[in-house]
Automatic annotation (TrEMBL):
Keywords: Fertilization, Membrane, Transmembrane, Transmembrane helix. The chain crosses the membrane at residues 12-35, 96-120, 132-154, 183-203. It is a multi-pass membrane protein. This is LHPL2 protein. It comes from Herpetotheres cachinnans. Belongs to the LHFP family. Its main location: membrane. InterPro entries: LHFPL. Signal peptide: none annotated. The keyword Amino-acid biosynthesis does not apply. GO terms for cellular component: membrane. It is found in: Membrane. One of its GO terms (biological process) is single fertilization.
Amino acid sequence: MCHVIVTCRSMLWTLLSIVVAFAELIAFMSADWLIGKAKPSSSEDVDNRTGGSQEPYHPTLGIYGRCTRISHMQLSRRDTLCGPYAENFSEIASGFWQATAIFLAVGIVILCAVAFVSVFTMCVQSIMKKSIFNVCGLLQGIAGLFLILGLILYPAGWGCQKAMSYCGPYASAYKLGDCSLGWAFYTAIGGTILTFICAVFSAQAEIATSSDKVQEEIEEGKNLICLL
């Protein structure tokens, strides 16, 4: 018989697991890893409403994507265009970024799998006599290691030709040049930290769902058990 067990700690772990997976996925897909040096507006870039020049814009560069501003000469306006600059894996700008993409992708796949499984831990707490919480916590720890490797290798690719076209000639490995870090990089770091927090917290979720109080309510015949 399936017993639905919901505790404050197990629910918090489930929510954090889902948030971490989505945060890392969104960061990986974003082009806002590097914010390039400002591109000055040309004399043709005039704001029709104010009559003045438009503000300089900052193109952004991700692991495999980029955002830049394109001109519409007939319409006298500019639009931001975002999309992948690499049509396939081999066209990613740097070998270090290729490795980063692999490590991050593996970590994200593991996190998404754990997030999916975590939803069902309310009904199934063990499989083959192994606690699902402990197994998921171990997988989250492994995913965190992959994410760390990816984030360590990523700055090593700042010296590639693609990065230098955005960040200037002084950009090199672990040196940003004229660029600054975008929100996606910080989100990936924050998600990695939360991944290890989730891995540790999974043990608390396991303790909460196997406590003596839960066992007492199971023995009383309750199928839905909610505990703080």
